[in-house]
Fold this sequence. Notes:
Blueprint: H1 2-19, E1 26-28, E2 33-34, E3 54-57, E4 68-72, E5 75-83, E6 90-95, E7 100-109, E8 116-122, E9 126-129, E10 134-137, E11 144-150, E12 153-156, E13 162-163, E14 173-179, E15 183-186, E16 192-194, E17 197-203, E18 208-211, E19 215-217, E20 221-227, E21 232-240, E22 246-252, E23 259-269, E24 278-280, E25 287-294, E26 298-305, H2 313-330
Parallel strand pairs: 1-3, 2-4, 3-5, 4-6, 5-7, 6-8, 7-9, 7-10, 8-11, 9-12, 10-13, 11-14, 12-15, 13-16, 14-17, 15-18, 16-19, 17-20, 18-21, 19-21, 20-22, 21-23, 22-24
Antiparallel strand pairs: 23-26, 25-26
Amino acid sequence: MRTHLRDICFGFAIIGMLAGTSQAATLRMSTSGNWNVAANWDGGAVPTNGTSDLANVGSSSGGGISPATAEVTDAQDASRIILGESTSTTGTINVQSGGSLTDFNRTQIAAGPTSTGTLNVYSGGTFTHSGTGGFVVGNGAGSNGTLSVDGGTVISTTQGVSIGSSSGGANATGLVEVKNGGTLNVTVNQQSLLYDDWTLSVSGSSADVDFAGQLRALNSGTYKVGVDGDLNVDLANSLRLDAHTMTIEPMALGALASGDYTVMRYSSLASGTDASDMALNDVDPSGTWTIQSVGSNALVLNYAAATIPEPTSLVMLTLAAGLGLTVRKRR
């Protein structure tokens, strides 16, 4: 009798635990607007990591819509975050000042084939990747993903960032840009990988980019730099290009003085990586750029500002003669 009573009590305890446990849900944004409004999601609830929810912004499945835009203005989280879930869909998340968004498993920006996904993190906003399922910018075949750190802060505490990592088929295009004093910080000693059609863009000395792990290229891509002084781009580990070409595209910001400017620091160049893996695409009309040195610890560019030639004596005489002729005509 005691055994039966114990079993019955145990059964009621399990039922009680199950009744008090919410089930994980896949929630798709059904109306563009604030993340924290339940009516903006097709499940009628705000996604949260507490129930291991998957948040989809930009979807043609379920009650999702495309294009879709979610505004994050306070503290929010989810187990997984997907932008552009379905084929050719578009999803955008804007983390505004005072807002913070955290994933505890995976973030995929432009997940579906030929999809478009954009994560904007503005000044005063924070995005944190703390999962182990991947942090990918440009994931679906033929997709276009953008991570724009526009004055805000992006932190990855568990994994590196993968840029342009398609799951098969056509290449994915991935852009990670840091500007207007934004911060990108990969705090874990794991590789950040540059796949497919990748672009890393850092603009201004007020931007701060730190990789605790190795930065490794698995394909050729572009490193865009907006220079107003030495850039704060630091790799605690090595730069590894594996015979792929990193095309450097510099642009002077403001009235930049002629001279040498450091645009990346690293602990070392990985074996097999050297100056032959670097190319320069000088599209700056304000002056001339060259690769000054690809050293063991830093990448340095040289800038020569364009000079305006002084007028020649013949030009001055011609101008003076023309001015005199004009004065005589007026008389």
